[in-house]
Amino acid sequence: MEENNKERQIIENENEIDLIELVKRFWTKRMFIVKVTAAFLCLGLFIAIFSSEEYTAQCVVVPQTGEGGVSSSLSGLASLAGFSLGSMGSAEELSPTVYSNVMNNINLQKELINTKIYFDRWGKELTLLDYFTNEEYQRTSVLGAVKKYTIGLPLLILKAIRGSEEEEVAVTGADGKIAVLTQNEDDCIKILKDRATLAVNDKDGYVSISATMPEPLAAAALAETYMNLLQKYVSEFKIEKAKADYNFINQRYLEAKEEYSKKQEEYARFRDANRMFTTAMAATKEEQIKNDYDLAYSLYSELSRQLVQAEIKVKENTPIFTVVEPVIVPRERSKPKRLMTLVAFGFLGGVLSCGTVLGLDFLKKRADIKCLKNWE
Predict the structure, then answer these.
(1) Does the pTM of the predicted model rise above 0.70?
(2) Do residues 313 and 88 lie in contact, with contact meaning Cβ atoms separated by under 8 Å?
(3) Regarding predicted confidence, which is higher, 66 or 280?
(4) If we measure between CA atoms, which residue out of 168, 163, 229, 209 comes closest to residue 324?
(5) Boundaries of CATH 1.10.287 in the chain?
């Protein structure tokens, strides 16, 4: 029993890490650790200096609707006018959680990429499509050029083989219809999806929109454009049914109005023509024409009331964004964070160099590798 305990203790002692020996080992290989860490610091410095500057602008909005109290006050006014608004305030809400899907709507994206934004570097307004796809306006950084001709070299060769013809890309929109995009449009949309973000805070009920661009003024303009387009398309989606009802009632109203005018004219003409006659036949005919006239008037009057209701419903359910934090032109760049980059690469170099020392020591003890014979 004692022997087993001793063996177990010996094994545990062997498995324990001797921190003092570990520190001594790192001190022995300090030059190796310093060199590797310095190499990583140089790499971090290179990336920090030559990375393209980026600026981020954002805004915070709260979706609002005209439902609730507005509907109640309008109902009181409507009752004085002789009609009821009914359940007009019961329109379905378009949840802010689907706003990201609205932002991905292909029609919104096409409208966005054709929006003109002023760029200080070029001193004029450019569409986002031209800015991101036209080589004339491309600003390639040192890192971008290195990446383009190393990692991106196979893609460049493939494009050269295919030629300069623009391919068309088929995309299904939110309405189920297939939209056709050129290759440049598709590339630009993908770039903008990475440069603009939308975050919904369900707890506090606000929406945050941010946009990143190489220039501060362009970043602010892009964020403002995103906010306006989001409000536009959310409004269109939400009141789509209300508009369809309004258009249908308006068409029936115009038809009823025309029919009522005809019956009114017919009734007046008959009375003028039979003013001196008091026969039973004339009275019966007049009563028949008057009944048709009354029926046409009742239909016209009812559709007129419904048209007013539908018009109020369209305006009442139009959502409005209350801007809590407006878009401002950013003063400080969001990328690159040079100090953070240096710290991160220095830490990474230190960890990897220490790990390499331990790994090589382990391999030298457990395996016979010729290249590690000089490792001390």
Answers:
(1) no
(2) yes
(3) 280
(4) 209
(5) 243-316
